[in-house]
Amino acid sequence: MSRAGIAANARVTRRFGAYDRPLVPDDDRELTRVGRGTPMGEYLRRSWQPVCLAAEVGEAPTVVRLLGEELVVFRTRRQEVGLLARHCSHRGASLEYALPSDQGLICCYHGWHIRSDGVILETPNDPASTVRERLCHPAYPTHVYAGIVFAWLGPPAEKPSFPILDSYDQAATQTVPFSLRFPCNWLQILENCQDPTHSCFLHTRVSGVQFAPSWGELPELDYIRTPIGTINVNVRRWRDKIWVRTGEIIMPNMNQAGALWLTGEDEVCFLRTSLTRWMRPIDDTATEVVGWRYFNDRIDPDGRGDRSQVGPGKIDFIGQTEDERPYAERQRVPGDFEAIVSQRPIAVHALENLNAGDRGVALLRQVLRENVRAFAAGDRPATLDGSRTVVPTYTQDTVWTVPPRPGRNDRALLREAGRRLAAVVLESATWPAAERALRFRLAAARLADELNA
Ligand code: FES
Ligand SMILES: [Fe+2]
C-alpha cells in the first residue's frame, strides 16, 4: 500500500506497526483556531481578555499579539492605557516607535496623531486632509484591574461591564498578577486544567512529588456543568481523610485551581482558589497564560508559596516555563509545561485515544463546541456578565475525617462523598454571598456526619 493510501483514521493494531500509522491529520480547527472570523476566534472575542500585566506597559508602546492580531499597548501621558492596531493607518509604520501624547500616540513616520479610541486627531503632513473625518484607526477598549490590562475585542455594542468574580476579593489575601508564555495552542493548556488524573502521574508518580504525596492517589472523578462552565469533582482517599476538590473552567478560556499546597492531612472546609488564570491566545500556536496568584494563610498554612517568584514570565511552582530549569532536568522531572507543549504546537485530536480518565477533556470540548456553534447560529451563549454584582464561582477544597471501614466499599463512598458535596457547591452559588461560607460549613459538617454514620 502506498503512503497516499493510508487513511487519516488508521490505527496501529499490530506489533512493530509504526509504518501503519496515519499521516498526521489536521487539528480540530473549530476549537483551536482563534483568528478574526474563525468560529472560536469570534466566540473568544465575546469575553474580556487579558492583554498583559499593567506593570509591563511602560513609556514606550509595546507590541502585543492577541488572538492573532498585531497590536500596540501603551500609556498616554495622562497614564491611560490604550490598545491600537500596530500598523499606522497612514502607511503602516509600526506604532511601537510612536510618541505618547496626552490622548494617544503620534506616529514616528509622518506625525499622524491617533487618539486611544482610534480617532485621528491630526495629519500634519497634509493638514488640510479630510481623511480624519472619514477614517478611524483600529482601536480596542481596555480596562485595568488588579494589575492586569484587559481588552474587549468584540463589537463595541456588545461590550459587557467588566465581570467581577467572588475570588477577586478574598479576605486578607495578597493578589499577585503573573504571565507565562507557552509555545502551543491555547486549548491544550485549558484541557490540562480539566484533567486531574495528570496530577497523580505527572506531578507525583512519574516526576516525583512536586506538590504533596497525596496527589499520587488516583481520585474518583466526576465532571459537572455549571452556569459559567464546568467543574471537575476530584475525590481522594488519604489515610483517614476524604478530600473533595472542585476545580473549574469558566467559559471560554479561564480556570480556577484549588489550594496548590494542600496535603490532605488536615481537615479544611471550603478553601477557595489559589489562582485565577486565562489561557489567552497569542495566535494559533502560542499562548500567554495570564492571571493572579492568591496568597493567604488559609490556602497555604505552611507558607510554601513565594510571592517574590510571581510576576511577568514566572510563577512559584515547578514546571510552568521553558527557561526555569535546564533541559536535562526538565527531561528527568517534567512539569505541566513539558507535557502540554510537547503535545505538538496544536494537539491533534484525531490521533488521540481518549479513555474514561479523559472525560473532563471530552466534556470541555463538547461544551466549547456547543457554545461556538450556538454563537455562530446567532445565539449568545452565557458569558461572564459584569452587570451582576459579583459572579459566584465553584472552586473549593474540603477535607473531612472519614476513616475507611472494613466491609464498606471505599471507592463507592468516595464517589458518594464527591457527588453530595458537589451538589452543595453548586447550590451554594445561589446563596447570599455573605452567608455562603458559613452555610457551606454547616452543610459539609452534616454530610461528614452522615458519611461516618
Ligand atoms: S506611517 Fe504613520 S504617519 Fe505615516
Ligand atoms: Fe498540572
Structure overview:
By secondary structure, the chain is an alpha+beta fold. The chain has two domains: 51-158, Rieske [2Fe-2S] iron-sulphur domain (Rieske Iron-sulfur Protein, 3-layer Sandwich), CATH 2.102.10; 166-452, Alpha-Beta Complex (Naphthalene 1,2-dioxygenase Alpha Subunit, Chain A, domain 1). It is 22% helix and 25% strand. The protein has helices at 29-32, 39-44, 131-134, 186-192, 197-206, 327-332, 336-341, 359-376, 410-428, 433-452; strands at residues 49-53, 62-66, 69-75, 81-85, 99-100, 104-106, 113-115, 120-122, 139-140, 142-145, 148-151, 174-182, 220-226, 229-238, 241-250, 254-257, 268-271, 275-283, 286-295, 396-401. Strands 12, 13, 14, 15, 16, 17, 18, 19 and 20 form a nine-stranded antiparallel beta sheet that branches. A four-stranded antiparallel beta sheet has the order 2-3-4-9, with no helix packed on it. The protein has a four-stranded antiparallel beta sheet with strand order 5-6-7-8. A hairpin with a 3-residue loop joins strand 5 (99-100) and strand 6. It is globular. The chain starts with 28 loop residues before the first helix and ends with a helix. The mean pLDDT is 94. FE2/S2 (inorganic) cluster binds at residues 88, 90-93, 107, 109-112.
